[in-house]
Amino acid sequence: MIDPTVIIIVVGVAAFAISGVIAGTRQDANILTVLVLGVVTAIGGGTVRDIILNIPVFWVGDFSVVWLAILASLVAFIFAPLFRKKLWKVLIYADAIGVAFFSVAAINKTLALGHTGEVAVIMGFVTACTGGILRDLLTGRPPMVIASEELFVTPVLIGGIIYVLLLDIAPNYAAQWPIVAICFIVGFRAIAIERGLQFPKWLRMRPGKRAE
Amino acid sequence: MIDPTVIIIVVGVAAFAISGVIAGTRQDANILTVLVLGVVTAIGGGTVRDIILNIPVFWVGDFSVVWLAILASLVAFIFAPLFRKKLWKVLIYADAIGVAFFSVAAINKTLALGHTGEVAVIMGFVTACTGGILRDLLTGRPPMVIASEELFVTPVLIGGIIYVLLLDIAPNYAAQWPIVAICFIVGFRAIAIERGLQFPKWLRMRPGKRAE
Amino acid sequence: MIDPTVIIIVVGVAAFAISGVIAGTRQDANILTVLVLGVVTAIGGGTVRDIILNIPVFWVGDFSVVWLAILASLVAFIFAPLFRKKLWKVLIYADAIGVAFFSVAAINKTLALGHTGEVAVIMGFVTACTGGILRDLLTGRPPMVIASEELFVTPVLIGGIIYVLLLDIAPNYAAQWPIVAICFIVGFRAIAIERGLQFPKWLRMRPGKRAE
Questions:
Q1: Chain A contact present for C120, CB below 8 A
Q2: I need a labelling partner for A174 at 20 to 30 A (CA). Which of A180, B56, B82, C98 fits?
Q3: Domains in chain A: boundaries
Q4: Cβ within 8 Å, pair A153-B28
């Protein structure tokens, strides 16, 4: 049987690489430029995770993840024209899937290193969001994680907290909880996108008080 | 008596968290989004400092600073409406206070590790500015440290140099110099903001020669 | 005889510092602001390289590179007015030279640490581009590496791959290959800038499919 961790990483890397390539389409970019965007989006989050945790950066020791990101980027480059009118949607769903898988993978890695649940939640969030932040900054957009009107932070943050709590409360089901967490994060974000979910007014900053 | 280092960190973290929350108001953001902005602004600079100095990142070992940042962000979220028309001013003063306290804290930490005064000055500057740079990039603004028309770099850089020199010349007053340095940086920046201080013309780039 | 590595670092640092100062002219900045931009551009790439490779950051141990960056920034500040109408061109050529020298220096350092050629190519690319990316983000521009219409990624990426292959195939000429690689990268980029080189259409993303 395939190690579930491998599946999580493969899906996360592929999803982020695709989102990076699609983000590059705005720039009328060539194949190498979008390849760089795909790879940076796919491995950026894990790189920052390993640097903060003070462990060797994962792809320096095992380059296969980079090859996977390159491959996924090439596939995305070839098939992007098929989604001509729905690229934005593919981008945010690819991002949502990448965020969910990377959050779970980073929480697992952080807990395995003996850190507390609080640190694991933060590392899950940072790992899940950094790749997309780098992608957005490199393509000259304000980072989606903060700028998007749909709920973005909420699903991954709440999902991470729930996942860590589940692992703590019922460790016997440690093999099932990742699936629950990933479905929760992707599902929550999908509903947020499709339904335009919002916080109640008293939990939002109101337009009247922008700092300019 | 309370350790002065703790006071410095508490004030710095709270000031930066507040500035992050206020920066988030531009985005019509919800409570979790501004919380993320507050925490990233508050712990971003110290995180980069520890990574460059190749020591364990402070909040991975001691999570209390993150709780403090979360608490300060929530308080800022609740009280922001009271400052409706003066948010921009609150933001730049909170930033100035955070910059001053973090600069001194980072110089202390760098010198305690046995590095030279030159390295300490740079680390003070990097630590003081990185949180604000991340805040500005995440909210889609050009970083204040470079873009703001008021003097920004000058107070923190000169203040850091003076602080390191004072510690070297009169180490007996090592307990007093942080207060001097913080007052100098905040005071200099306040005057720069209120009076629109500028360098003499021959020390500025002139408009005629923009690179486009 | 002077160590070739020293020459490579001196030229790279000076070129990047100049590009940072020129980028700062857009902001009507003062001398300290452009100094910060010059230094960040010059040492940013190497800093990220050392952090990813998990080795001590080069300028923390040996501050002379920072002094060099400060000196080059001051010189650029003084002489920038002479190039009033050609600043943009000076900027992109300074950037091209910095990219070429830093790519080679980073590949050498990565291989010397015992990492594989693939990792060395990536580290050469990351080191060469990060300083310029930080410069562009700090001055509020979309990073040139992705946004520029001329070929940017291609010369440094292909040049890095060729350099690693040459070192592998004919290690006896290890002293000559850096010169070949640097000339290739600068020359390729110069032709791309002057001739407006482009990939054939089927290797570019077409305007019709922008994600918005």
A1: no
A2: B56
A3: 4-196
A4: no
Cα separation, B190 vs B211, in Å, equals 31
Dihedrals φ, ψ of C149, to 5°? Answer: -75, -30
Give the pLDDT confidence score for residue A206 in this predicted structure: 62
Question: In this structure, what are the phi and psi dihedrals at residue A211, rounded to the nearest 5 degrees?
Answer: -90, 125
Q: A196: alpha, beta or left, given left = phi > 0 and alpha = psi -120 to 50?
A: left
Whose tokens are 């800093």? That residue is C47
Q: Do A204 and B31 touch (CB under 8 A)?
A: yes
Q: How far is CA A30 from CA A24, A67, A68, A121, B44, in A?
A: 9, 19, 20, 37, 34
Rounded to a whole number of angstroms, the distance from the CA of C157 to the nearest CA of chain B is: 26
Model ipTM over 0.90: yes
Neighboring chain C residues of B209 at a CB cutoff of 8 Å: 25, 80-81, 83-84, 87
Show the tokens assigned to B8.
């410095």
Largest CA distance in chain B: 56
**What amino acid occupies position C103?**
S
> Does C143 contact A at CB distance below 8 Å?
yes
* Maximum pairwise Cα distance, chain A: 56
**Pick from A142, A146, A152: which is nearest to B37 by CB?**
A146
Those residues whose C-beta lies under 8 Å from the C-beta of residue C135, and which sit 6 or more positions away, are C16, C19, C20, C23, C37, C40, C41, C44
Is residue C206 predicted with pLDDT exceeding 70?
no
Mean pLDDT check: name the lowest of A121-130, B41-50, B148-157, C69-78: B148-157
Cα atoms in the Cβ-side hemisphere of radius 13 Å centred on C79: 10
Please check whether residue A162 is in contact with residue A184, taking contact to mean a CB–CB distance below 8 angstroms: yes
Of A147, A203, A209, the CB nearest to B81: A209
Provide the 10 A C-beta neighbour count for residue C204. 16
Which of A23, A36, A57 lies nearest to residue C211, judging by beta carbons? A23
